[in-house]
## 1
Amino acid sequence: MELRVHDLACRRGEVTVIEGLNFRLAPGDCLVLRGPNGSGKTTLLRTLAGLAPPAAGRIELDEDAILYAGHADGIKAQLTVAENLAFWARVYGGADIAPALAAFRLGDLRDRQAQHLSAGQKRRLGLARLKVCPRPVWALDEPTVSLDRETVATFADVVADHCTAGGSAIIATHVDLGIAGTRLLDIAPFRAREDGDAGSPFLDAAFDAEPAR
Amino acid sequence: MMALLRRDLTLALRSGGGFGLSLAFFLIVVTLVPFGVGPQTATLAGIAPGILWLGALLACLLSLDRIFQLDFEDGSLDLLATAPLPLEGVVAVKALAHWLVTGLPLTLAAPVLGLLLNLPDGAYSWLLLSLATGTPALSFLGAFGAALTVGLKRGGLLLSLLVLPLYIPTLIFGAEAVRRAADGLSPATPAMILAAITAATVALIPYAAAAALRINLK
Amino acid sequence: MSIWEYANPVRFIRTADRVLPWAAALTAAALLVGLIWGFFFTPDDYRQGSTVKIIFLHVPAAMMAINAWAMMLVTSIIWLVRRHHVSALAAKAAAPIGITMTLIALYTGAVWGQPMWGTWWEWDPRLTAFLILFIFYLGYMALWAAIENPDTAADLTSVLCIVGSVFALLSRYAVNFWNQGLHQGASLSLDAEENVHDVFYYPLLFCIAGFILLFVTLVLLRTRTEIRARRIAALLAREARAA
């Protein structure tokens, strides 16, 4: 399962933020997205996940191959840890939640409602979801926010295992995960020229030629 | 899909205020009517079909914004949209869950409230039947309105303004069926048209609602 | 040359600039002729007296109230399918005109109904249908106003317009079922025997033409304004990013 991106342009609202982006993500690859705030990392990941249509270019990827994890974890406060995980496992056709609980040290918390978890524990639950949804390509947006150092290491191990097993991951993060063989993709050079609004029909240069009355 | 239905029902039960509130609202509306129009049983009996339908409709409206809003805020909707389920199916299941926790209890409670309004004897079964066939359309149309307004901070009032005009045909035929039964006429024609509207709504609205959701997730 | 060239905002504005003076002049001419003829040079009806003359406002306004929504439906679909911004903005521009026409139809209907039916308002199917149409316009405009991103607003209002059209039509027949009504049948139809009398018919045609032209003029004007508003917003956004 290889992800190929050809000459991709992404739009946030009305403004094109990224253009001319080409990259490949082969099985086993782990790609870290870098770029200043507002450079379009989230927009790129949402576009890859199919939540937003590309403004131009092509994304080659099988259907239902990508697993997106954004800033919000999709955790329901009134459900227990196990219920939350089991739900996403069912929806994504995944299997046993026990290994995921174990990997993120959530075993003792499994019957606790998510509203009684700390921010870090909630985040761990959100990441545990990755292990119960069997999809080869992970698109993760700032997954390490509010994680302690130990959990970051756990998370890095999970990603490394996933890639070793033939999966791949594209991760927007500023933390060094220490995963061997990680590639960096700096998207700053792909920032759209002309302030990203060149395509807008309302900024057509012909407006200025409008005959004065 | 079953998992989603079960989750939504569990959430509705655990978070409280879901169908309990709608039922209480229905009761209060029906209780207030005699204070407004006077206690004469003949007057009340005459307007009972309309009041019961209107009360159920308004009670249904209360919880519409929750169909998608919470899932939108906590990111669940993103994950559902990228899941191997068709988004149309997600909409249909969530609208069904809404009906199970609001429309169905309202339907079952309506005959009891009909007693308060002195609804004529022959109309009870048709009240049950017309609400049972009509309220699913209310939930599905509500899901469409909720999908349109999901990205808005204070969409509640706008949601009502968008959804209520869509409720007009359902209300007309639903209340008409009960009124005819109350007057001793045959309610078959309006009841069948009501069923047709519900069937078409349930079949087609998920496509429009899913389209609206996709636009809002962009 | 294809009609889609006018989907370019600049081309649209240029064309609108050229057409607008003519459209405005024709509108004024048709309305002046129609209304003066209708109000001062037609006889009183033997039953309704001079109140019959309200049809010169009522009927054209009612027609345009419906046609404006129909135009919004078509332009909404064009926007969803072909993504022409001008199309979406034309739909947005037509809504306030349509709701005004609906209000005129409702108001003139009430003014006429008071002496004729003895009541300002009657839950007659036609009147009710226009009231419902009024509410649909309100919802449509409220949705436009509520959404910040203009493209998202265009998308969502278009979906609402399509679904709303189905339900507005459904409501039209539902209210027929619900109340048989007092309102007379259509004032105009191809079947000439049912038409209003010739004396009223010809000035009415002028009034209808005038209202159609008025609608076209206002839509062109408002669409041009909407395009310029979008251009200002885009320029301001560019300036803000540059700063």
## 2
Amino acid sequence: MTLPDNDNLRKEFDSDLENSIDLLSIEELRIKYLGRKGIIASLMESMKDLPDNEKPVFGKSVNELKKYFNTNYESALKKANSEKQSDSSPDFDNTLPGVEISLGKKHPLTQVWEEMLDIFTRMGFEVARGPEVETEYYNFTALNFPENHPARDMQDTLYITDDTMLRTHTSPVQIRTMLSTTPPVRVIVPGRVYRNEAISARSYCVFNQIEGLYIDKGISLADLKGTLISFAKQLLGSNVKTRFRASYFPFTEPSAEMDVSCIICEGKGCRVCKHTGWLELLGSGMVDPNVLRNVGYDPEVYSGFAWGLGIERTTMMRYGIKDIRYFYDGDLRFLEQF
Amino acid sequence: MKISLNWLSKYISIKKSPEEISELLTMAGLEVSSLKKGNSFDGVLIGEVKECTKHPNADKLSLCKVDIGADEELPIVCGAPNVRAGMKVPVATVGTVLPEDFKIKKAKIRGEESRGMICSEKELQISDSHEGIMVLPDEWKIGTPFSDLYDTSDTLIELDLTPNRPDALSHIGVARDLSAILNLDLQKPSFKLDESKVDASSEYSVEIEDKVGCPRFAIRIIKNVKIDKSPEWLSKSLRAIGIRSINNIVDASNYVLMELGHPIHTFDMDKLSGNKIIIRSSIKDEKVVTLDGIKHKLPEDTVLVCDEEKPVGIGGIMGLQNSEVSDDTINLLIECAYFDPGKIRKSSKKLGLYTEASKRFERGCDPNDIEFVLDRVCSVILETAGGELSKGIIDIYPSIIDKVKIRLRQKSVNSVIGMEVSETTVKEILNRLEYEIRSEKDDNYELLVPSFRPDVEREIDVIEEVARIVGYDKIPPSEHALIPLSSSPNNNESQNIKLKNMLVGFGFSEIYTNSLMPYKLWKLSGDSDEPVRVTNPISMDMECLRSSLMPRMLEAVSYNFNRQRKSVKLFEDGIVITPDKKSETGVEEIHKVAAIIAGELSSGNWIGENSSADYFFLKGVVEAYLKAIGFSTVTFTESSNNSYHNRYDIIDNGSKLGFMGEISQPVLKEFDLEVGVFYFELEVSLLLKEMKKDISFLEPSKYPSIMRDLSFIIDDSMQSEKLTAIFEGTNTDLLKSFKISSVYKGSPLKENEKSITYHLIFSSNERTLEESEIDKICEGIINVASDSLNANLRV
């Protein structure tokens, strides 16, 4: 009578079971004893060669063995599953830091620009971009800067040749945009601009502007105010107060500067706002009829407004940064804070 | 422009606080940049320096005994070079608090006791003069509070004016704006003038040769003046706005300049040759010496005021030394003229000479107030210096500059401003600002613009006047605006943001760097062309425009390493500029994104080793980045550039996306960097184009896949791509992917051999694969490798 060697197989299983402490080894145990090509399967396979009268006894014995394996395997699996979450031994030290995963940071100027982009995209503005090297015509003439006029001194210019220069503002893109489209126009223009200024805590020869332009029929100063107040509130919070005061830019008439209540002292007066309670946010105005004429728009039919602000200045204001050079040093100790 | 509120009150009576006045001016476009309120100077007394000896322990200090009318004389240590015994001086006694919270305390200065301070004008905020202590008139009584004798209650307002408002460079101009804002009367200065019987025109004549540069020139003559100190009211007025009193003649013309805004020049008539003033253009290289004693070589086409022999003034900019009024001057020739703004600006720029006069003339003075200004200055001179005024003005004004005529439509006022402004208000404002309303018809006005407003030329300019006086804050903001649905949404922008987000995800931080750099730094980009240069750089450190983002980024790496960083991963997104003769601006501008890696890949983990950045990490980032963007068939071609070691162009379907490489040793040495630095640069427009392509979705298989690992032994010098090509070349669609999972050199391989292991994944979307069919494919691969490359399977 041939019978499976249950005693030895049990012993072998028990010793394997003892070593099966994690899910992987328990799975190996299952494969070895209960798998498709495992010990039970091969015993069953060998049964077909036995004489018929021996088969039931042999089968019964294999089944006992199988049951034994199964029960023990399942309880081991259950136990391992309950333990698999983490090492719960008493010397586990959770106060050690996790593996350091380093995520980069976007530059604070990018972050502020993206916020502004978001606000204006929701208001239906598209982005237009233009070259950093410009001609005298786009940078000054078309924008109604008279030749030999002190207005040109408002922006110290870096020249490449006699009539090309590094743009001093993003406004030339207004001209390029209007020349290539018909009204209504609603664009914002981000970009680098250049001024012939020595580098100091308050000024840098390179900085970033964002400029906006809105042209349609029947646009008034009231629309300018509505749009820019909404922008300021979205950017700086709905409690921010705004005021518009008369100013001068060659390419707008009337011109206005927009101040916001100082975000440091909330308008009470402090060093940052020079005790006025106000900070200058942007320059704006109704597009000058000469500019409209220069791009072939009829100022009797169309009107509109434009504004511009320095992203560095706004970011400095927002975070109380006192030195503009931080933006251009690439110092990770600075950049990682944003 | 500095404005004294006391002075201003001569023309308009305002019952508002200095703060309120500042606010009104600021809101109407005359921005107040600072406000200095009067100070009572409690504790500052008049004293007399009784003794003045050298400080025993300090060369530049003096020991003074000062009588302030107290029981004993005060010992005071004074550092001013002009202190002398016998002087009357302002003394801040112990306990006094001077402006900017400067508290006077008892002190020992270099071992000598000092009880109080002798003050300079700056310390008392009277002017910016800090050259020495303030010397007071002898008749002032010792012990009197300073504020009893010296008016310190005035408020000084400093205006930061925009270049379109030359009219506001005067007290009367500022008062005029206030009169319109507050709807109050403006009181122009009034005076009477006694003329002698001598006709000025019988004594002198004027001839204008340069009619473009000088459209109008007028003179008056005063004889027998007595040069003297100015009366107190005059020197006080000037002092209030920070101008030092010189003498009664100079002060008079400065006073009228600051009152009316039109520059005046006085000549010592006896220093002029002949009896004719000629205004002409300078010829090349003419040399003159200006009032301040400085020699100038004049640019051509400068307006010159000359007598019959020589130039005596640079028109509209500065007088010359040879005809200057001095202490013994007796007879005066007084000039008031109108010069062409453009010409003045050009000359003043070329000469580098910016004066109170040039500032006003280049912005545009009133060509039509000249008689009034001359009369006014003569009245002040006669009052303060006596003398006889010759009869009449010699006034040459060949073609009269007419006032600008403008038609203003009430309708336009309302539509530009966006609210109803009543006709009454419009007219009131225009009257106060001295616009002349010639006629009114159907809500239209015919206006004449005052000639002191050269910036007002069109209807829109007048509307601005109305708007700013009404006040922008009165305009109700519109609650909504009609939005045309955008035809092209901000696609490029949002894709550009995604490009940055991916790099942030890879652990790179964004930097912005200066696009301008010295040639030496530019050279490190390794580009062979010449850079685009700025012709008038601030300094040579800002001369060249970047043609690659690398030099400045490398500088940033070194900046961080110098600050004890051990791991630096940075990226920048920006424009690079190279010469391009064919373009409109002579340059080509390309939008790039670049990243740089140096040092440890993760800084300071307590688990396991920290690996350092190397070439294959760089390549891994590039491959992952491009794959994430959507590229699938990128190849790399070796390219050379002295600044890089192992530099490869990154190519997709024949177009060059950019390059990557290791920065070469000589370049690293420039920054004293001792770690390997790895860099790639890609062209953004090409990346954006790829991102816009549609994604074609592939159904994942429902059937299990089969994996195999195959290792081949090849010659060490053979590039892996040859072997890889065999996998690419299999003509089965069951091989879904393969990658190199290990490269091995060493025992038991021969010295010139290496083994490369490929990990293969097979699957089908239709069925479960048979092991045998995969074996067959593998066999095929093994045979090809063996036949074509002599690569043997490692078993």
## 3
Amino acid sequence: MARKVLTLAEVRDGALRNVSFEAIAAAKTIAEGGEVVSVVVGASVRSLANELIAYGADRVIVVEHEKLAAYTPDGYAQALQAVVEQEKPEGIVFGHTALGKDLSPKLAAKWQSGLVSDVVAVEETGGNIVFTRPIYSGKAFEKKIVTDGFMFVTVRPNNIAPLEKDESRTGAIVDVQVDIKDLRTIVRDVVRKTAEGVDLSEAKVIVAGGRGVKSAEGFEPLKELANLLGGAVGASRGACDAGYCDYSLQIGQTGKVVTPDLYIACGISGAIQHLAGMSNSKVIVAINKDPEANIFKVADYGIVGDLFEVVPLLIEEFKKLKVHS
Amino acid sequence: MNIFVLMKRTFDTEEKIVIQNGKVSEEGAEFIINPYDEYAIEEAIQVRDQHGGEVTVVTVGNEDAEKELRTALAMGADKAVLINIEDDVENRDQYTTAKVLAEYLKDKEADLILAGNVAIDGGSGQVGPRVAELLGIPYVTTITKLEIDGTNVKVVRDVEGDEEVIETSLPLLVTAQQGLNEPRYPSLPGIMKAKKKPLEELELDDLDLEEEDVEAKTKTIEIFLPPKKEAGKILQGDISEQVKELVSLLHTEAKVI
């Protein structure tokens, strides 16, 4: 059954986030041959539309308004409401990002619809579109179907492969005018605490430190390794509690859940609380002095040793590899 | 100030998960107040102590949730409400929970509603914003700081590690992120007092709702455990050899670099 499916593209620092392309791929599966329409919202975002088409959107709707420069639930809801009234889609896909998590339940309530959050896989089986999502902090998974109304879902970054980028794809780019009014929350300031560039939830590589890092300075070699691999730095609750780094880096049951291609755990013992946030990473490397540390049970590769000896050597080796390839 | 907290009783996910008859087995498992809801309860108590008023903790669940409600009362909440829909509604999802809570709250003239930003069992994070939308009030999710001055509110919000400073006003719903506060442990006198505090129990009927008004829009068709990971490879030899081998394995075997 062909369906028309909308996706919400997400912009950060003037560029589209990868999850925008992953949402298009998920939408293609849900659409079953129907049209996939990406919506991009902001103050000045028109120039990004072509990239969405290159990643598989059949059409792009641009909603520009000065009051949409910063995300607010009221502003974005008004923009999306206008688009949905015009397009009457049968499915909607957002990224399961700070924005998607904040906005999607509001819209689901407005439209009296269900919402399947944090989807890691979409498939068509036996005439149903089936969504897989983690529950119990990734210790189990559930498969869900939508029984009534829209197929409204948010997809977890880094789990659904985007389509191959193809600049030869073509599609219409259309503007929708919206009158944005009555914003009840106003963003006064944004304080950047995360490192420039790579964000933890979308990082392909994460180098994470635990109590074994011993100090804030101890994170320096981890940062160097992360930068070298184009990745981000994360931390265990222990390291955050000890004040070695900001809570914004915390990975775990309380904290962020991540699924990078490569997770390098340095001086992390592997408490259940931490494993809940990273055990679904594709490849896990553990570096720890204690051969009995729990982290080795989930690791694909382990080195028993002092991280302050191992990490600098790793940096050297990766540099060599980069030169050769 | 009229303050409400939306609380969920959750399975402690530090527990091992066992699946029996297509469901996560609750046998012998520990149940707790959802950790993010503890931040919401603590914040509610602090706001009340500063501005006056009353804190009511509300949950949608079954009679077992009375234990967690009593814990919230022992922490310092004034009243508790258990909305027990277990026998009335067979298919439930976040649509159901939000609708029930909003129906309960609609005539309560709440100034401030607090909830956790996500529950650690289902992990959907939908109920807070859904309730705010149904009540027609603004909301701010994943907050780490809350300042109230009259009806003006300044909130700091965690956005994937960055901080947004947001201005808004009451009535308002906020969802708590880790870092908002340090939830207190119930004191012994608190536990004694909690036994005498009011705990009201309601059913769907009391809210003038029918099963069909709140029936789920989604359905779980299967629950499964992730495939067991095979034991990893602990590298051997001197450290610099191990590092060389690791880089080579990541490059050629795992192909992630």
## 4
Amino acid sequence: MKTAPEIESVIDRMARDLRQLFTERGITDPLMVGIHTGGVWIAGRLHSQLGLQQPLGTLDISFYRDDFTRVGINPQVKPSRLPYSIDDKHIVLVDDVLHTGRTIRAALNELFDYGRPASVTLVVLVERSGRELPIEAAVVGVHMKLTEHEHVKLGGPDPLQLSVQESP
Amino acid sequence: MSVRDIQLDDKGRLRHFLTVEGLSRQILTDILDTAESFATVGEQAVKKVPLLRGKTITNLFFESSTRTRTTFELAAKRLSADVLNINVATSSTSKGESMLDMLRNLEAMHCDMFVVRHNRSGAAHFIARHVAPHISVINGGDGCHAHPTQAMLDMFTIRRHKGEFNKLKVAIVGDILHSRVARSQIHALSILGAHEIRVIGPKTLIPRDASTFGVHVVHDLRAGLSDVDAVLMLRLQRERMEGAFLPSEHEYFQLYGLNEDTLAHAKPDAIVLHPGPINRGVEIDSRVADGARSVILEQVTNGIAVRMAVMAMVLGRGNADEGEVRRPGAER
């Protein structure tokens, strides 16, 4: 649906929006954290475009999912890496797709098990319809209005590709 | 029914963890991979994940143990499960209650998992055959038979230091005959494809049929350690010896004790493992046990992550379709 150059230009705009947001809110030393797997790809692009000093953090929220007893554990779980203290820091949380909001709920729970950040700002490449929780992104690449049978998929990491698939 | 059948559910997933024997390389690798991600939980400010919230895990210890019981307990607590510790030597079996009656009572309390340690080989299998269908059993060591989580934490520790197994020469040293740890290590190393497995010890402490397990039997410590990547020491188990297996501990140390001189025969970057508790000056010299190549305390830390992985895998099989596990880049 969206080609690699189009996605790269969307990410360029997200980086500009994010820089402006840092200025407005007086955030000088943000910590960027990507959610595995697609969120880490997007966060990596934003991190280098913004030239952030602190290394990129990663979260795998598998251990915090609310459907563990239904879907079980995936052995391909990646370790979470937050190579710094997050206490009193401004966190920029990055994911590929915001849909129900449950992934972000799980990520927030995990973040708070590492410490008490000053703030958390959510950044997503795709904001789509279907929220089940009161969660909102501050910076969004593209908005999509989709039915519950349509699913957004991000392929990557190089090149990044967005497609919409129809479930049977 | 074979051992293999009882450990797996109808989709081939781990349901009980009783022995390494008969499991696939894929399952062992899944345990190691899953443990790798649990290892970071110990680095969080809140050392806990909510995965097994609401589950009850019972440590059923018919044989005393400190390290194994505490690491199982910590593993369960870091997964947010509730934990009961039952030291059966002091519980109602001493009032004449049978083991099966005790199991029925624990089932009536809605336990989800038993971690069993027993001095009789086969005890964990016996319990696995008799529990209610929703309960999982993990073997925390049974007699001279198996100690699968210990073997997997050893594999985890070796893999972290040495990478893939197919290039590794590994020596297991000491009382192979009485050691459930050695038995499980041999199965795990061979399933994971270790290049060479050597067992080293006096004739009286090596099973006569040892070579049928695909291992090389060596009776000389120096020759056996030559060029190995990892040395797996075993504890001399005085409590399991009934006859005259050994002349004296002093003589044993002279012949089979690991010290800096004997360790010099291994590769310069070889690591030294020991399941604990160590008998200093009996099977291992303090300078080796506390030295730079010893990973003995890492094993303890890794034991928590490996036990978390096994607990999460057997209790987290879920009942949904296979394809529902989160895929990279999949939208949710």
